Amino acid sequence: MDAAEALTLLMSPQGRVDPYPTYKRLRAHGPVVQAMPGLYVVTGYPEVDELLRDPRLGVMDDALRDQVWPNWRESPAVSSIARSMLRTNPPDHSRMRRLASGAFSPRRVAGMRDVVRVQAEELLDSMVAKAESGAPVDVLADFAYPLPVGVICALLGVPAPDRPLFRRWAGDLTGVLEPEITLDELAVADAGANELRDYFVELVVARRRAPADDLTTALVQVHDADGDRLTGPELLANLVVLLVAGFETTTNLLGNGLVVLLGHPEAAAALRADPDLAPAYVEELLRYDSPVQLTTRTTTAPVRCGGLDLPSGSTTLLLLGAANRDPRRFPDAQRFDPTRAQAHPLSFGAGPHYCLGAGLARLEAQLAFPMLLRRLPELALAEVPRHRTRLTLRGYESVPVTLGTPAVVDRGAPDGVLPGTP
User: Cα(275)–Cα(374) distance, rounded to whole angstroms?
Assistant: First the structure.
């Protein structure tokens, strides 16, 4: 199978559901391969890392977008994402990122620990009560979604009753992040973008009327004081992206990671016994089944990488999920091994666009996995979960589980330690 055929397979429904065999086929052609004229696919860890950090590569700007998609401004989904820090290059990217970065500083993230723990405890209580009533439990809907959405909504100042709205809207909008999208899928994404934009228009008005100690108020005040620092479209676009990015990838990290742990009972038992192992487990889960599988960059000058010359104007498909299983970097890369030393996965990217909320996502996962396993020692899959047919944002449609007999937790102990454990 040549590189073009492998890329076609990767974009198919079959390839999206399980991309790892196709990554292996692409890797056989080298860490960087030209799949078609002007398009290069990168599977190697050092090569992806290098290109993410290279200032000669950037995200698609308006001028290039006009060439490949002349009517993109007519799409609310595409135009909204394009006005956010996610799809802008320096200096605009640096300007917008700086305005939001304080909310995700290491000190602020560390200060969220108790908030995350309390929310996780409440969700676990609700799951147990739901199971006792005889209702089916879906760990995605009942835990992996509401935990990160509650955390990011607390930072943004989104009222708690509104939080259930966002899962469908965000799921619809993020269709535009896929490398290929049909007109029908674009229409769905546009509807989600409109819903999210309308919601934040109302929230901005509310924060002008009644400022609060939240990130939305802070960004509104920056815009109102100096529209050159943050324009109106940028304000709304970044609020949408901060919300969506704040839970979509973390939901997938929790869902993907739990399925992996339940498939490796010895590893799950070790984490249950020693929650201090959680940081290493989270890094390996990010590496093994990354919630973000790819990103794209465009060369603004000629670049040589992986033995190939990439001309200016080339599109590079950077396969983060493939890089995370590069055997040159990770021996026995197809094996889940939470004792692996210094995983350093590329799941959150690298360089200027390194995920702003990476520290918060790690904190949520480091707390959530031990709490799930300790509170629910008999937790098991009720059926084989179904993957979404998405490639960029990899996750499940649902993860039905059975809880068994819950453990009694001492709420006065740090992080909900079980009675009698060290």
Answer: 9
Whether 239 is covered by a domain: the verdict is yes
Query: Any idea what the Cα angle at residue 251 is, between residues 295 and 324, rounded to 5°?
Result: 40
Query: In whole angstroms, what is the distance from residue 159 CA to residue 173 CA?
Result: 21
Q: What domain range includes position 238?
A: 3-402
Q: What span, in angstroms and rounded, lies between the C-alpha atoms of 47 and 318?
A: 9
> Does residue 410 belong to any structural domain of this protein?
no
- 420 assigned to some structural domain: no
| Number of domains, the chain | 1
Pairing status of strand 315-319 against strand 39-42:
parallel
CATH of the domain at 233: 1.10.630.10
- List per-residue pLDDT tens for the chain, 422 residues long: 899 999 999 999 999 999 999 999 999 999 999 999 999 999 999 999 999 999 999 998 888 888 888 889 999 999 999 999 999 999 999 999 999 999 899 999 999 999 999 999 999 999 999 999 999 999 999 999 999 999 999 999 999 899 888 888 998 999 999 988 889 999 999 999 999 999 999 999 999 999 999 999 999 999 999 988 999 999 999 999 999 888 899 999 999 999 999 999 999 999 999 999 999 999 999 999 999 999 999 999 999 999 999 999 999 999 999 999 999 999 999 999 999 877 799 999 999 999 999 999 999 999 999 999 999 999 999 999 999 999 999 999 999 999 999 998 666 655 544 433 33
| Domain assignment of residue 72, yes or no | yes
């619809």: which residue's tokens?
172
Taking residue 249's Cβ as centre, other Cβ atoms within 10 Å add up to 25
DSSP character string of 11-51: HSHHHHHS-HHHHHHHHTT-SEEEEETTEEEE--HHHHHHH
Q: Is 367 within 8 Å of 415 (Cβ atoms)?
A: yes
